[in-house]
Amino acid sequence: MVNVVEPTHTPHSLVPINHTVELETYVALAPDLRQRVAALIRLSLWYIETDRGRATATAAQALAQAQVLGDHVLLGKARYAKAVAEMLAREDPTRTEDHYYELTRIGVNFAAQARPIEAAWCDLMAGVALERLGDSSGTILLIDRALTVFRRFGDLGGQARCLNTFGVQQSLSAHHHDALRLYQRAAELAVAADRPGSHVLAWMNAAEARINIALQAFNEGKNEPAINILEIVHDELVVLRRRLIDLGHRHLQARLAGLNSLVLAYLGREKAAIAEAEAGIVLALATGLQQSLGSARCYAGQTHLAVGDHRIAHNIFRSALEECGAWIRPTDAALVLRGLVETSESAGDLRAALDYHKRLLDVELIIREQTAKREREVARARLQLAEGNSMDPRAQAAELIRVNQALLAERDELQRLAHTDAVTGLANRRRFDAQMQRMSIRAELTGRPLSLIIVDIDRFKVINDKFSHLVGDEVLRRVAATLQRSCRRGDMAARVGGEEFALLLPGMALQAAIGAAERLRRAVRECDVSDLGPDMIVTVSVGVAAFGPGSVPEQVYGAADDALYQAKESGRDRVCVAPASLGSAPRLIA
Length: 590
Known about the structure:
Elements: H1 19-29, H2 33-50, H3 55-69, H4 72-89, H5 96-112, H6 116-132, H7 136-152, H8 156-172, H9 176-193, H10 196-219, H11 223-247, H12 251-266, H13 270-287, H14 290-306, H15 310-324, H16 330-346, H17 350-387, H18 393-410, H19 413-419, H20 429-446, E1 450-457, H21 460-467, H22 469-486, E2 492-495, E3 500-506, H23 510-525, E4 540-546, H24 553-569, E5 575-577, E6 587-589
Parallel strand pairs: 4-5
Antiparallel strand pairs: 1-3, 1-4, 2-3, 5-6
């Protein structure tokens, strides 16, 4: 399932025509620079859906020419196109946070220019970025804000994209019936808006939702209804393939072939299923995207498994892990690993089957964590939205029950271990990074302050060398306990390095955080550790920084770390604060 934005206000029709060629022709025949820039922007956004290898370069070309032109509106649209192209055309998720902030800034500029539709598209794609970052509640809030604007101004294409995004969230939570309804409505709106890209996307997602519903029916022993659903889906995919070819839409063709191979396999049409699976791999290779190739191999492996060819299925699954392991989605990875367990067992290789099964458990844990988190955050977002919409008290109570159930599920021991430092019991670095990202985004959305404190135990190596590592671990635990006692509800304390800790303080401005850091420093120094060693005194050096509008978490963490280094260089056992301007020098607090 995907959700990308197509060009807005493009004159085209839902009659069969190669839309890629049409847009490329607009660029070639543009009579002046202004119209050429506008055409390049539309083409780059279309390439994101159809030919992602060309999207970023086209968007960069549009931006360069928009800068020459000097038109602020076109410049904003070109920046938007480039941000979306880079976020969705590249598979590396590490820069998604940068794209979120860039889209947010562009949206603010559009709002200042009294261009609410363009600002709403920025909200929509910033919401997609948050989903990629794991913040489903932030996604709900932003997409709902965009949907409100689209409805106010009658933008049916924007409404279609919002509903498609909501459908993707339902699909990721395995609520396939709810997702199907959203996709169907999105497809209807896309037809009314004459948006072919949105239409085929919603249509494809609806087909996948129906396949998942059919597979659930098979698992429940309802074979006849499942076969009826798959027969309908197959007929739809035949029509959809012609539509994708008419549009010049390359990106979805590989996915369609994979889906259809599964459908044909479950319908017992083995030769046709295998041919479709092989075609899906060829089409995925043509896209040049590892994630597309990983999904194609996943479909092909499932297809060969379904028709009983375990040897070929095993080789395909193994290739998927070896070639696409870094890019394959957790849900696909789980399917691949289940296939490898089954094919290894059928070949009598029980050692390999056990190894794959262990890896499968790890992936399933990730999926459970993601699903539980998404359920909780979506429920919370609905409650936040309901506060402004006078939700019926009974409905609100039901939502609260769902939130509480999700919170209880999150306390599952496996999840706790995955996010907890074994020595101190605090959150580990993985959990801290995720929370810092989420809290910084929420601070940006709400305008509330957020501060960061980094704490490092002074001369910890000396403690380890002089008194033993067992004593060192106990010092870590006592410092961690002191940090934990200093936390308010909603704060977060974590062990982020060997002897380094961090505190996230939502709702606390810089000056208050400085006071909290100084109280923490004194509390550690006054902690009685005489039972651990004669004349032992434990002190810490502390760096403090605050998030501001447009702050990037890595920059704020770096500023706090620089302040910590300055505290160390100035004699240890002291607090140093990063300035509001992160490029300036840190200052010591007496």
